[in-house]
Sequence to fold (172 residues):
Amino acid sequence: MPFLPEKLWDNPHWFALQTRARHEKVVHGELQKKGVETFLPLRRITRRWSDRLKKIEEPIFTNYLFVRIPLRNRLRVLETKGSLRLVSFHSWPVPIAERELAALRRFVDEEISVDPYPYLSQGDRVYVRSGPLKGVEGFIVRKNRNVRLVISVELLTQSVSVEISEALVEKL
Fold:
């Protein structure tokens, strides 16, 4: 592969893997069986059917999950049933920023309710000063009377938001 930095070829990095529609959990499971390190951020929601309510877990980013691999092992991932492609720029897979995945992991680990949010390219960038999300950076938006912290995964052009007290953040 010409022009590919050696560090991406030989050292594991996080990449976004696009999957077929509604195949995120299946691909996640199959990759784990193959020994591939994966991260599938899920959110708990309540769905209403005509006869009942049911709590389910659904992917935060539909059709995507994250894999940590050296690029030399990409075929092992792409051969998995339901996998489509590694998210790329000019045909080259692009690693996900560690700080973006670290923020998503914090949301999942702390069991904080997240909502998908339209990707933002402008707005006030903030830093969380205290509380369970201390150190997380994102954007502040208002939803009704509440303040929400938005974390964007730039490569996927997708975002998630969590409710936060305005007193816990400061502008960068």
User: Anything to note?
Assistant: The longest helix spans residues 98-109. Residues 12 and 70 are 4 Å apart (CA to CA).
